[in-house]
Design brief:
The chain is α/β, with parallel strands linked by helices. The chain is 35% helix and 25% strand. The protein folds into 4 domains: 138 residues, Immunoglobulin-like; 308 residues, Glycoside hydrolase 38, N terminal domain (7-stranded beta/alpha barrel, Alpha-Beta Barrel); 64 residues; 98 residues, Immunoglobulins (Immunoglobulin-like), CATH 2.60.40. One of its GO terms (biological process) is carbohydrate metabolic process.
């Protein structure tokens, strides 16, 4: 209708007749389609070219100043592109000032509207304030810049004015002047200060994804090993985090920081390693310089500002509430992360942060989320107004603070302002429109009830891109003007709540399904429990526990990070990697396998060897048990201390009561009696000296004596036959010599036939052997 109204002002009678014929044909088209039942053409062709007031795409890439005063000159720049299939001629670009907006919903409606609408889009400010374009071929683009003194806009009372930039021209198919394209934005106008300014709190998040693994190098400094070196680019000049600090230092904002990011960057200031793509090797990290510069800049930037520290590694509170709270130990990780947050921020930045704020993903809350958040000591929960919705039909936006019971406060961020910069802000037209819309919405809050001062909180996306951060900063520069008064988050939480505002927390069933699908599943928290249980057993045997507990404790907290939302596969790989590596370390302390052995006699010793392939010492007990104690008794368990990279052989005394094979088990246990590692079984064959053996030995001795006597008598008779005492004496001397020789040799004729008793088996390795302890990577703790 708006297009037709324009046509009546500019067309000839022939054009009007053409329009009527066209309308008649269009009206008849549905009837013909119904009668003929012509099948629709397959949707394989390109979309039809835009026509009418959508023929030309108008982009506004710059508008300054964003909130002008009477003495300013408004400058609007942009680009026009002919999206139609025909050439546009006689074209010019002009500025149109529309009416003031009547409310926040009116701003949203105007922003969504496309195409020109006469009356609603205002009149063009013509003359010298337009820019001629001339011809614009199909697909062609042209830049423009309009500069107009603000007093020429003829703005009236304070308010949000619709501002349009339109291209007017004609085409071959429509040879009359008409609006062929328009882009709308908003211009906040505040010629005088309001009775009471809106108190505005803007959160400035410094949050990243986990970058550090659970591994450290085996050196004394426990050099950390990073998953990647991408954080270096974010800290470098022009990088995302560098821009966040550079922009934030000059803004009236509240810093919201994940302490894990600080700990990670602090580790980068020293030597660190980066694992390769396959995870089987490392390279030296190169981010020391940018890390030092960034931390130094951040320390200066936070001076005089409030710092809110999230729990370490920003755990996903909603996932904990919906899937993890019933898994043993899950909630304890949230409490530990909260306690670690304060220590980390104070150590790295030298400031004491607030740790009593919880920030669920996207500010979406329900009763279970509030219960979990407050259980860790966070008495203030940052929610969002599209989650904790107003139900009282208020005509204004209420103060953010709400008392939700139990001494807890919900700080409800404004959804429109918080999501203003979530799109692609790398395009100048997108960022320009977002900034002006943000300013318009913030001013409209003040205009809703200028005599009622309210406190408004803005909680943007957790990890803004560089372009998003730049747009946020530009908006804050413009909003900190006539209608706002900036305050920190702590002050916003203490603001007097509006008694008419909603205080009822939504039930769990109202939690958005789109967010629920991004949560960590129950199995993720079960894996966390498994890893923590393994770590608890492992640390009990270590002599330098801090080398293991700290890196693995932080890794477990990183497994629960909110940043894993939308990256379930990455979260699974990270968790599995932590568990695999920890299990690999625990297996570096083990029993050396034994083969079956034989014990002779009623008492003997059994050696068992403990190998420690860690770089630190371990202390635990070794228990040896006989499966048949009535046949073989084993001595009491023994405490074993094994230095890093060594093996220790431990001997157990045994007492045999019967012959035959007996199964014996060896088991390492912690000092509190928990089994460590797998049980080792081996067979011991017991042999005992019996009476039959003794009789055999005695018979052998008797035979030897008789043989000696016979030899003696034979020689005696031979000597007599030779007739000489002298010879007999010589023979006697020879016999005495033989006896003397036998004695000097130490041989005993009586024992020469008894088999040699086997000695105790040699130990598998020497005690505290410094030799190689087998293949395997040294523990980097």
């Amino acid at each position: 209708m708006a297009d037709a109204a324009d046509l009546r002002e500019t067309t000839s009678s022939r054009a009007r007749r053409w329009l009527r014929r066209t309308g008649t044909l269009l009206a008849a088209a549905p009837v013909l389609a119904g009668v003929l039942q012509v099948p629709a053409a397959p949707a394989v062709h390109a979309a039809a070219k835009p026509t009418g007031s959508r023929s030309v795409d108008v982009d506004i890439t710059s508008l300054t100043p964003t909130a002008p005063t009477k003495s300013d000159t408004l400058t609007v720049s942009g680009t026009v592109t002919n999206d139609s299939s025909s050439t546009v001629s006689g074209a010019h670009v002009g500025l149109r000032v529309g009416p003031t907006m009547e409310g926040r919903n009116a701003i949203d409606s105007a922003a969504r509207r496309t195409g020109y609408q006469q009356g609603a889009d205002g009149n063009e400010i013509g003359g010298k304030y337009t820019e001629k374009i001339g011809k614009l071929g199909a697909g062609a683009s042209r830049d423009f810049t309009l500069s107009i003194p603000v007093n020429e806009l003829h703005l009236g009372e304070n308010g949000v004015y619709q501002l349009g930039v339109s291209l007017t021209g004609q085409s071959r198919s429509r040879p009359w002047q008409q609006v062929l394209g328009i882009e709308r934005t908003f211009l906040p106008w505040q010629s005088s200060s309001p009775a009471k300014k809106t108190q505005l709190t803007y959160l400035w998040p410094l949050i990243s994804t986990p970058h550090v693994t659970s591994r450290t190098d085996a050196d004394e400094d426990r050099t950390p090993i990073f998953r990647d070196d991408r954080l270096k680019a974010e800290l470098a000049p022009g990088g995302r985090l560098q821009q966040m600090v550079s922009l934030g230092k000059n803004l009236p904002i509240t810093w919201v920081i994940d302490p894990d990011l600080l700990a990670t960057v602090d580790a980068m200031t020293r030597e660190y390693e980066v694992q390769n793509r396959h995870g089987d090797g490392t390279t030296t990290g190169r981010g020391q310089t940018v890390a030092k510069r960034w931390l130094n800049d951040l320390q200066k930037a936070v001076e005089g500002h409030q710092v809110v520290a999230l729990p370490f590694s920003d755990p996903d509170i909603a996932s904990l509430a919906h899937h993890g709270k019933n898994v043993p130990g899950a909630l304890s990780h949230l409490r530990d992360a909260t306690e670690l947050a304060s220590t980390t921020v104070q150590t790295v930045l030298g400031v004491k942060p607030r740790t009593d704020f919880a920030w669920p993903a996207d500010g979406a809350v329900d009763s279970s989320i509030v219960d979990v958040a407050t259980s860790a000591g966070a008495h203030n929960v940052i929610a969002r107004s599209d989650s904790l919705r107003e139900t009282g039909n208020l005509s204004y936006t209420p103060t953010a603070a709400r008392q939700i019971g139990g001494g807890n406060t919900a700080v409800v961020a404004d959804a429109r302002l918080s999501t203003a910069f979530t799109g692609d802000m790398s395009k100048a037209d997108n960022s320009t429109l977002a900034i002006q819309r943000f300013l318009a919405q913030s001013q409209m809050i003040n205009l809703q009830s200028p005599d009622r001062q309210r406190s408004i909180v803005v909680a943007p996306q957790r990890i803004p891109t560089t372009s998003q951060a730049q747009a946020m900063a530009a908006a804050l520069d413009g909003v900190s003007g006539e209608w706002t008064q900036l305050m920190n988050l702590g002050e916003a939480a203490k603001a007097k709540p509006d008694p008419n505002a909603t205080q009822r927390v939504p039930s769990t069933r109202l939690y958005p399904g789109s967010l629920r699908r991004q949560e960590l599943p129950t199995r993720a928290f079960e894996n966390v429990y498994k890893t923590q249980s393994t770590l608890n057993r492992f640390e009990k045997i270590l002599t330098a526990k801090y080398r293991v507990v700290t890196p693995f404790g932080n890794a477990i907290r990183r497994e629960m990070s909110t940043s894993w939302r939308g990256n379930g596969l990455g979260a699974t790989h990270f968790r599995d990697g932590v568990q695999r590596y920890l299990e690999g370390l625990t297996k570096k302390v083990r029993l050396i396998p034994k083969t079956d052995m034989t014990l002779s006699g009623r008492s003997a010793t059994i050696p068992v060897t403990v190998q420690n392939n860690l770089v630190q010492g371990v202390r635990l007990r070794l228990v040896l048990k006989s499966q048949q104690k009535n046949r073989l008794a084993v001595s009491e368990p023994q405490v074993v201390n094994v230095e890093g990279g060594h093996s220790q052989s431990v001997k157990f005394g045994t007492t045999a009561n019967a012959n035959g094979p007996v199964w014996v088990s060896a088991q390492l246990v912690t000092e509190d009696g928990q089994s460590y590692g797998d049980e080792m079984l081996f067979e011991v064959n017991v042999t005992e000296i019996t009476s039959t053996v003794i009789l055999v030995i005695a018979g052998g001795v008797l035979l030897l004596v008789l043989a000696g006597i016979r030899i003696y008598l034979q020689r005696k008779r031979a000597a007599t036959a030779n007739g000489g005492d002298e010879d007999a004496q010589e023979d006697g001397a020879d016999g005495a010599d033989e006896a003397t020789d036998a004695e000097s040799d130490g041989s005993d004729p009586a024992t020469a036939l008894v088999p040699e008793q086997p000695s105790d088996p040699a130990p598998d390795t020497g005690s505290q052997s410094a030799g190689a302890s087998g293949a395997g990577e040294k523990v980097d703790h």
